Amino acid sequence: MADFAWWQRGVIYQLYPRSFQDGDGDGVGDLAGIHQRLDYLAWLGVDAVWIPPIYPSPMADFGYDITDHCAIDPLFGTLAEFDALLAEAHERGLRVILDFVPNHTSDMHPWFQDALRGRDAAHRDWYLWADPAADGGPPNNWRSHFGGPAWTLDPVTGQYYLHAFLKEQPDLNWRNPAVARAMAQVMRFWLDRGVDGLRLDATWHLIKDEHLRNNPPDPSWHAGLPEHEKLAHVYTSDRPEVQRLVCELRQVVDEYPDRVLIGELYLPIERVVAYYGTAGNGIHLPANALLIGAPWDADSIGAAADRYEALLPVFGWPNWALGNHDKPRIAGRVPPGHSRLAALLLLTLRGTPTLYYGDELGMCDGEIPPAAIRDPIERNMPGLGRGRDPQRTPMQWDDSPNAGFSPGQPWLPVAAGFEALNVAGQRADDASLLTLYRRLLQLRRAEPALAVGRYAGQGAPPGILRYEREHDGRYLTVVLNFNETPRRIPGLQGRVLLSTLGRDEGRDIDDSLLLLPGEGAILTGRPGPAAG
Ligand code: NOJ
After folding, report:
1. CATH code, 18
2. If you measure from the C-alpha of residue 201 to the centroid of ligand 1, how many angstroms do you get, rounded to a whole number?
3. Which atom of ligand 1 is nearest to the CA of 101?
4. Which residue has a Cα nearest atom 10 of ligand 1?
5. How many domains does the chain divide into?
6. Final residue of a domain: which of 415, 441, 467?
């Protein structure tokens, strides 16, 4: 295990700062709140916490629109509080990863405010400007992910500026070396403070076609999908130059020992793995969203895992996630009861897992009444099911008013049913999902085969996913029953270390194991020949 970095052995916990714990009673989560809950994270047994943006922001995109990269928004606290939080986290053996948002700033950032002063402004070329098309409209057909054109006209200077997301989030011009230098300084600011890693937001967007060519239509588009998906984002995403840029960002991280660079990349998996770079000079963990997108069945998930393993470069360390603050929660994407299977999968596939806050309880997407909608995606493109408020509802700590999240009015409504689904209740229940997560996390620490071992997919009967993990001659077999009926899994020998339903644990199996619907198990011992 010592040969592996902490970010390879460990498990990352992603929280959403507005929604984790409110420490000052204003209804919005903050650093003081996170501080209060560090003991919970240590108790749960995760190794690192990823905190999405906490920097000064007008909050048009809830912190992903930054006005000062080197400060803390007063809504969340102060820099001194951040330093104290980092120190306290480190004292508990928890690492801290921050979001780094290089693609865009807020339109209120002093750089952009200066750029607006005129075509000769010092920071004009820090952003992407273009003259109107012949008809006076936007320079080309590029669309924003958040609805409407990706271009907004600045009437004063008569040029359009580019924004992949909201018009309040102008894209930076990464071809300008001054931008690269300034953003490297931002990275150093946080790495100097002792931050253990950075998560690059919207990595695949950083460079756009310099000729501003129109994106071609995407033939797979159909009614019901957002309008920007009508186009294939050939000229606005995953441009070859992004690879070079990523290597430069990695070099900055490598100035510091033991730090990790994570990259957000919604691309086909064969393109995601390209971001490891060559000879490991790219992103340590290019985010793998396969479990977020794959249909929930044994064949699809097994095939996705095998394919990913086959595509990884030899130096590439895998990673997995079931969800994040941009995607519907796992509990609602799987059949009832399968949250346990999902936990087993996340924590036993090879690679660094990222656990999204509340998923350890089985939190579901909250119902957001129209008047409570906050997410700009839902506001701009209502009814398409892309709104992100439902997966950002307050953490459910206990059955007190507002689920123990805040004494004030929460910024988003607490999801219904929190009285029965919360940390306090599940901590006291040996059969709860939270207890299962904690047991799995403990087992990963105790069993290097689970944390860092080799992976081999194995043949299995229909609806069963089966794979082996091995480290230093220690073999473990993981079996998951996706069927709605009990299944006997042949060709198994060994001791049941853990069952997601707590059955048969400690029992020696010398032939086959019966799994109930939605049950999964981890067994020790070298298995017999895999059954096809
Ligand atoms: C990806 C982030 O995860 C998302 O929340 C944000 O809205 C966009 N990037 C824009 O920064």
Report:
1. 3.20.20.80
2. 6
3. 11
4. 64
5. 3
6. 441
* Full pLDDT tens readout for the chain, 532 residues: 779 999 999 999 999 999 999 999 999 999 999 999 999 999 999 999 999 999 999 999 999 999 999 999 999 999 999 999 999 999 999 999 999 999 999 999 999 999 999 999 999 999 999 999 999 999 999 999 999 999 999 999 999 999 999 999 999 999 999 999 999 999 999 999 999 999 999 999 999 999 999 999 999 999 889 888 999 999 999 999 999 999 999 999 999 999 999 999 999 999 999 999 998 899 999 999 999 999 999 999 999 999 999 999 999 999 999 999 999 999 999 999 999 999 999 999 999 999 999 999 999 999 999 999 999 999 999 988 899 999 999 999 999 999 999 999 999 999 999 999 999 999 999 999 999 999 999 999 999 999 999 999 999 999 999 999 999 999 999 999 999 999 999 999 999 999 999 999 999 999 999 999 999 999 998 744 544 4
79 with 120, same domain?
no
Question: Residue 459: which CATH number?
Answer: 2.60.40.1180
Give the Å distance between the CA of 140 and the centre of ligand 1. 23
Residue 30 lies in a domain: yes
The residue contributing the CA closest to ligand 1 atom 5 is 326
Q: Tell me which residue range forms the domain holding 491.
A: 455-524
> Among residues 299, 309, 338, 306, which one has the least CA distance to residue 322?
338
- In the structure, which protein residues have their CB atom closer than 6 angstroms to any atom of ligand 1? 61, 64, 101, 165, 201-202, 264, 325-326
Residues 137 and 244 in one domain: no
Q: Does 199 lie in the same domain as 151? A: no
Q: How far is the CA of 165 from the centre of ligand 1 (A)?
A: 8
Q: Structure pTM? A: 0.97
Total number of residues shown for the chain? 532
Tell which residue, 353, 528, 512, has the closest CA to residue 458: 528
Dihedral (CA of 35, 39, 42, 43) sign: negative
Instruction: Supply 105's token pair.
Output: 């700033």
Query: Mutate which of 16, 104, 165 to test ligand 1's pocket (most atoms within 8 Å of Cβ)?
Result: 165
Measured by CA distance, the residue closest to atom 11 of ligand 1 is 64
- Which residues contact residue 185 at a Cβ distance below 8 angstroms, ignoring those fewer than 6 apart? none
For residue 303, how far is its CA from the centre of ligand 1 (angstroms)?
A: 29
Catalytic annotation, residues: 201, 255
Residue 51 shares a structural domain with residue 181: yes
Q: Which atom of ligand 1 is nearest to the CA of 165?
A: 10
Best CA proximity match to 100, nearest among 68, 137, 52, 163? 52
Supply the angle between the helices 433-446 and 339-348 in degrees, to the nearest 10: 20
Residue with tokens 């043949």: 459
CATH number at residue 132: 3.90.400.10
Q: Sheet of 95-100: strands edge to edge?
A: 285-286, 260-263, 197-200, 95-100, 48-51, 12-14, 352-356, 319-321
